[in-house]
Every structure is written in C-alpha cells, then in structure tokens.
Write a structure and sequence with these properties.
It is a single chain. The strands form two sheets. The protein has a seven-stranded mixed sheet with strand order 3-4-5-6-7-8-9, with helices on both faces. It has a two-stranded antiparallel sheet with strand order 1-2. It contains nine helices and nine strands. The chain has helices spanning 38-43, 59-66, 93-104, 138-154, 172-191, 206-209, 232-239, 250-255, 268-280; strands spanning 26-28, 35-37, 72-75, 110-117, 120-127, 158-164, 196-204, 218-221, 261-262. It is globular. It has two domains: 22-55, no CATH class; 56-280, 2-enoyl-CoA Hydratase, Chain A, domain 1. By secondary structure, it is of the alpha/beta class. Helix content is 33%, strand content 17%. It starts with 25 loop residues before the first strand and ends with a helix.
C-alpha cells in the first residue's frame, strides 16, 4: 500500500474538515478596508487605526468609554414601547419591536444611566442605532425626560449622545410630540443652570436634530459624523443643485457655526470632563 493511503479511519490531513472562521472574529473598516481582530478594534474604542473612521457604536459601548471603571446605574430600564396606532407596514409594529429587542438586547432606541466621569457625577443618555434606526418614539422621549428629572433632582450635568434617523413613523404624532416634550424638559434644566452637553454621532438627523440634539449648552460631535435635518439625497432632490463637498459632515457643520468643537472618541472622556469642570467652576 502506498504511503499516501489512509490505513486507519479517522485520520485527517489539514485540508480535510476545513474550519470556518468564527463570525465576528475580524473587523474590516468600511472606509479604508483595513482588517483587524475584533478585540484589537475594541481596544482602540472601535476607531480604525488606519483612517480614524469612527464605527457606529451603541449605548453600552459609549458607557464603557465615558463612565469611570465602567460602573453606572441605568435609569428606567423596564419601559417598553406600546402600539397605540396598531401600525402595520411590511410587518406589524409589535413584531418589529419584539424582533429588535431580541436582536439588540436593549428595550428601545435610547438607554439612560448615571455614574461618574473623572470623579464627577453625571447623567448620560445614549441612543442605539441598531434599534429601528435609533428612531425617536415615545420611550426615547420618556427615557430622556426621566434622565433630565434625575439631573434636576440631584443637580447632575446631563450628556445626550445622539445617533438617529429621526422620528419613528410607526408612532406618528406620538413620536413628534417627543420633540416638544424633550425641549421643554431641557428648558427646566437651563433654568436650574445645570450643564447639558449634546454629543452628535453618525448619523444625527431628522426630529432628533430639530429638537434636543441642537439644544446643548455645548454642542460637540465625533469626526466625520452625518449631521442634518433631511439627508443629503433629499436635500439635493429638493433644491435641484449639487451639494458642497463634505456637506452635512461634522466638519462642515462646525465650519458653519453649528458646533462648538469636534472630538475624537479616544479624547471624549477627558474633553467632556474638562468642559463640565468649566461650568461647575
């Protein structure tokens, strides 16, 4: 028998039973194409080392970046959206909600919590874009309202991290009412002279931009974030003109006076803490 013949069953060469790479083990930057291990990408706070592309992250990841020792207490964790309109498009709204909860592990498109940043007590609301596009429904408005109530009660600075496609159409007027609700609540915060910092991330659009996202005592953004009311395609189709290069990026918005500064994610914690100290002093 030739040397290449298998004498015993169960002996496999390296080419047999080829192993599949576990999903999520690697990350490829959508901007420059650089491939790194997912763990290494997490170590750089989900920012590409090759081109500084800031990957979209959700509330849990932002809490990891901002809160001291990753310690925080969630505010109103057990509220869920209802279906007041019995809405159905390609699927029932209640089904869409259930699917999103199972997929993302969060209750809705915003999560609020309190903790410390460099020893300073703060309240943070962060949006979850993978929950129905970070759309603003009644629960998002309520989460923000309760976070503001906590800030008012304990006199703690507030940070809202926006990442949204706008109002949630499945809730119609109930969604649009959240614009007035959150804006009115922020007025109470201003009257008590409690700092509110608005951080806009990619993308911040629609009713969120038109309400609480642009009402910060300080408005900041991450590099390269899309910030605007209507998206670039809609604007272009409406005005029938080509748009300037970089239209609605955070850099463009900064140049036109709608932002105070742009901050990279690795500097986010220190910069926010510094800004809050300026207010408190």
């Amino acid at each position: 028998m030739g040397w290449f013949k298998r004498i015993k069953e169960g002996i496999k060469t390296p080419t047999q039973g080829k192993k599949e790479t576990p999903e999520g083990l690697w990350y490829q930057c959508p901007k420059c194409g650089k491939v790194v291990a997912s763990e290494d990408h997490k170590e750089t706070l989900w920012v590409c080392e090759g081109c500084s592309h800031h990957e979209r992250i959700n509330a849990k990841e932002y809490f990891h970046v901002i809160f001291d020792n990753d310690k925080y207490t969630e505010i109103a964790p057990n509220i869920y959206s209802g279906d007041p309109l019995n809405f159905t498009d390609t699927k029932k709204y209640v089904t869409r909600l259930e699917d999103s909860i199972l997929k993302t592990g969060v209750n809705d498109a915003a999560t609020s919590a309190f903790g410390k940043i460099e020893g300073i007590d703060i309240v943070v609301v962060a949006m979850n874009f993978n929950f129905i596009g970070g759309s603003m429904g009644s629960v998002v408005g309520e989460k923000i309202s309760r976070a503001i109530d906590h800030s008012l009660k304990y006199h703690k600075p507030l940070i809202i991290i926006s990442k949204s496609g706008g109002a949630r159409m499945m809730e119609a007027a109930f969604s649009l009412m959240q614009m007035a609700k959150t804006s009115a609540k922020l007025t109470l915060l201003a009257k008590q002279k409690i700092p509110y910092i608005s951080l806009m991330t990619d993308p911040t659009t629609g009713g969120v931009t038109a309400s609480f996202a642009m009402l910060g005592d300080v408005n900041i953004a991450e590099p390269g974030a899309l910030i605007g009311f209507a998206g670039p395609r809609v604007v272009k189709e409406t005005i029938k003109k080509d748009l300037p290069k970089g239209f609605q990026t955070s850099e463009f918005v900064l140049d036109h006076g709608f932002l105070d500064y742009i901050v990279e994610r690795k500097n986010l914690k220190a910069k926010i803490a510094q800004t809050i100290r300026l207010f408190l002093n």
